[in-house]
């Protein structure tokens, strides 16, 4: 499921969201286009639910979730499903200031919403990119992450 739903989310991001951030395509026509691209109805529904969950948290309040110098411990479920490289990179992004604690938690929420095991580094990078793209005021952090995801010729790295 992870591969298909995440692949579908990446496809949506590359072909619809990133290219046309100001316009919101009609869901019915978008579903039809996705089916024609080879995605199943179930995958499309799960991807739309994932995006709905992201949209619900668009206007996050910047709440201090943890005091300075605190360490975020991952739950047993997060540890089981998210590999060590991805968890380490997530911590690095927070230390570098690309993610604050609030957005880190949103990234973790969206990773866990993938309902998949074996979430790796590349999966994490894509979810971070989508989360930052969706968050007002995160343009600089999004640009930093985008630089990591695009190669010189403007193509995504997979």
Any descriptors?
about 160 residues, mainly alpha, 8 helices, globular
Structure description:
Helix 1 crosses helix 3 (41-56), helix 5 (84-95) runs parallel beside helix 7 and helix 6 crosses helix 7. This protein has 8 helices and no strands. The longest helix has 16 residues, at 2-17. It is mainly α. The two termini are 18 Å apart.
Order of helices and strands: HHHHHHHH
Mean pLDDT: 82
The number of helical segments is 8
Strand content: under 5%
Rg calculated over all Cα atoms: 16 Å
Structural class: mainly alpha
**How many beta strands in the DSSP annotation?**
0
Cα distance spanning the termini: 18 Å
Count of discrete structural domains: 1
| Uncertain parts | 152-158
What would the principal axes of the Cα set say about the shape?
globular
Q: Give the biggest beta sheet.
A: none
As a percent range, the share of helical residues equals 55-70%
In short:
This protein has 8 helices and no strands.
Layout: helices, strands, pairs:
Blueprint: H1 2-17, H2 27-36, H3 41-56, H4 76-81, H5 84-95, H6 101-113, H7 121-134, H8 139-149
Helix pairs in contact: 1-3, 5-7, 6-7, 7-8
């Amino acid at each position: 499921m992870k591969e298909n739903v995440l692949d579908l989310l990446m496809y949506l991001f590359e072909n619809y969201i990133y290219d046309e951030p100001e316009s919101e395509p009609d869901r019915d026509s978008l579903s039809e286009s996705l089916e024609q691209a080879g995605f199943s109805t179930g995958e499309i529904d799960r991807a739309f639910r994932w995006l709905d969950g992201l949209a619900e948290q668009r206007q996050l309040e910047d709440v201090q979730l943890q005091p300075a110098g605190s360490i975020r411990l991952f739950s047993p479920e997060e540890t089981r499903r998210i590999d060590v490289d991805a968890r380490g990179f997530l911590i690095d992004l927070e230390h570098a200031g690309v993610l604050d604690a609030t957005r880190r938690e949103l990234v973790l929420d969206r990773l866990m919403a993938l309902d998949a095991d074996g979430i790796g580094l590349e999966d994490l990078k894509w979810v971070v990119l989508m989360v930052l793209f969706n968050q007002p005021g995160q343009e600089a952090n999004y640009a930093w992450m985008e630089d990591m995801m695009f190669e010189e010729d403007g193509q995504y790295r997979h």
